[in-house]
Batch of 3 targets.
Target 1
Amino acid sequence: MPLRSLLAAILLALATSVAAQPYPAKPVRVIVPWPPAGVSDILARTLAQALTETSGQQFIVENKPGAGGTLGMAQVAKSPPDGYTLAASDIPSHAISASLYAKLPYDVLADFEPVAVIAGSPMVLVTQPSLNARSLAEFIRLVKAKPAMSYGSSGNGAITHLAIERMKQETGMDLQHVPFKGTVGAVASVMAGDTVLAFGTISGTVPHAKSGKLVLLGSSFAKRFSQIAEVPPVADTLPGFDMGFYTALFAPAGTPRDILQRIYAVTGKAFANPKLKEIYAAGAAEPGTMSSAELKAYMAAEVKSWGDVVRKVGLKID
């Protein structure tokens, strides 16, 4: 065989061998479009460690914050669709960005493949004890009788902002919005008496409720959450209300179906990791249960429902 033909045959054999290697055959980057130490970052790093142990390849988390999470997501959208660059971001922010930003460098639905829900934790709706409202229904009646009070959120366009705007639209409550830098500030404003309502995390609200500084009006998941089983869902009062701090893995559009299935499979196995279970439990989070197809349908529904809220509120970021 001529030397040139021999070299071509060797290169073809090597290429075929590499292509046939099971995924993952090299380290995987997981882009978190938020700063370190946030909810999505902690969940992603916990899962990445478990995935590394499960798959035998490194899953390396990289923080790429900026522009409400859109800078990091744009990087993933433009990455090769080979399964070696993924995003780990919260579902509500990703869905909200579709209508919140006037010029996104990607299409929220068309440019990504939703792979798996990493974890979810409900938000907790809180108010002041001095209002003497011990349920959401009582709070709604109180606010309607005394309009123009204020509520706090973690910032304009955040889920904690738009979730209460959705509640206002469904109930007719008149509440003025006061944005803070994070849920801690919003919850603190309720305790201080500056606002009367806010959504917070379980860890940031339950201890204060136990000490009598807050009243827990409801959790944001459709069903009762195991760690706060005594708190009724908001959906008991407002049917269909279901949202929370859901974080998911996304791959660039065009990623081969077999690779997506492999990522989903190793993610499911990683959920059995004892350390992951421990950290999730400490953070009041539960592993995701949606299939990739269910997650894709859920994302489409979230983009539509949050888009309706954003348009009614009149928010737009250029």
Target 2
Amino acid sequence: MRLSAEPSDAGKRLDQFLHERLPGFSRSRIQGWIKKGHVLVNGSPLRASYSVRPGDQLEVEPASPPPLRATPEAIPLKILYEDAAVVAIDKPAGMVVHAGAGVHCGTLVNALLHRFDALSGIGGALRPGIVHRLDRFTSGVLLVAKTDAAHQQIAGQFSSRQVEKTYLTLVHGRVKQESGRIERPIARDPARRIRMTARLDSGRAAWSEYRVVRRFDAFTLLEVRIGTGRTHQIRVHLSSIGHAVAGDTLYGAPRGSHGRYFLHAHRIRFRSPAAGEVTVISALPPDLEEWLAELQPSAESPRV
């Protein structure tokens, strides 16, 4: 590709200029081309920090990224349940499920490849065994398929809403009702693309049911069951009724000192192709137990 710098481009960094002209490629990808000599300015390779001048003639030879494959890493895993078809992992907060968005190591998949000889290949080379996901800072139980047949069967249970998923979450404020149901479609927030929203008429159907587990002076601990698995579903739904998940600054909670938001995948019920109906429970991790211990209980709080 051949590009010419205009007067309005004067002073722009070379990588910035190319990213503006070639928005289909990430800036880090473009920086890689520059570093490897795939970009020439007036016939010469230059640094990404070069200041573009009007009239500069650029030649760009896009390079294909190397094929990505997950590699085994010796990362400890806590196994909650295992049979011939499926394994249930207790995922810690902070661990990414699989590579993507600049994360290429230290993921759950890297740990799984080191621990297990065989996993389902339906998800591809970067997602072996992965049937569903949890957000990076959501902890708790997550299912992994060992075989392709198990993957297909369990994925079918998710899509037909036969899998029962229950979470524990701490939210800001006093939730008035002891139980309730939120049924609002979820869509990408047009104003801030990293967020989802339940405030539009459009979007994918989603419902969440909650019940109060314990009350605190300024917070409420909820058990939430979801019948759909939309991106950020619990966080979005609870924020939409004025009760942001504690620590979830993306959806309106004030910044705290715990380094994560309070959301834990507590229980999952499904049918294993190898063992029939299975219920797996993940207890609250120590950091969330400590978080609750810091709070002042409300006099009206039920203890469950």
Target 3
Amino acid sequence: MLEDDSGRIRLVGNALKDHFLVTGCIIAVMGTENANGDFEVIDLKIADLAPQPDRWSVSKRPSNGAAKTKVKDEDVDMTSRGQPSKKIAIVSGLEFSGSNTSYTMELNLLLEFLLGEALDSTAQSELANISRLIIAGNSIAKPADPTDTTTGDKKAHKKYGYDASSYNQLPSQLLDTFLSTLLPTMPVTLLPGILDPANASYPQQPIHPAMFPQARTYASLPGAAAASSEPGWFDPVTNPWEGEVEGWRVLGTGGQNLDDVCKYVDSDDRLGMMEAMCRWRCSAPTAPDTLCKPSPFPPPVLSHFPSPSIQSPSPRTK
């Protein structure tokens, strides 16, 4: 379905089989209207991958905004200089909980792995090349439903549906301890997720440093991050987040945008969907139709991946 200010028209044609599209993609099509009132597509064009800046071009730009003077051999790979290449570690879904202890062993093994305490010397030398750990959302588990009646205990009805006495601070304390143990060894970038204590709407603001009394000692001072291009060792960021790691430009999300796209396609190729969003130059194509305001009804699976253009279940209004 193609939509603009003048109206909507259905897209058909064999040219669509070579492209994966979902609602919200901005495309250019060439074709003609057939006898059925559909638009027969002959050719289709998307924005495709954007040109990327040179390495270190963002963080090392002069304060006056002028173009940076490139130093000789600045962008040469570190391995060609006899130095080991840096790595980025990415984890998500830690889901620290105050009641469920089934993942305690896995979290302890992860901590020992990142610290190099449970590995041989060869693996430890590899882990020493990790320049930053990125925690991509859902670091704290979903709290238990206070209205759950399976235990037989009747909960008192609250005026606004929230019981302050039932707040459990243990998950955030466990996450704070986890981060403070890692931070002397490697920098950490923390993105919020749908389960984390941040605003529920997308995009999300960073998790407030007050949630981490131990880890926030490694964060930049208020106002210092704006004056300096280098983030602190503890860096709570927005979701989505654009930053720079070892001079390379990085775009990261907590996964809500990808989960919402997966509702409308019958495929498990999430890496291919992430590549498609980079080629569309749109990290949240389904917003604001379903991403920012969850529907109480589960959306149907509409097609296979890759697939022709998919009609939006909730058309946009101009």
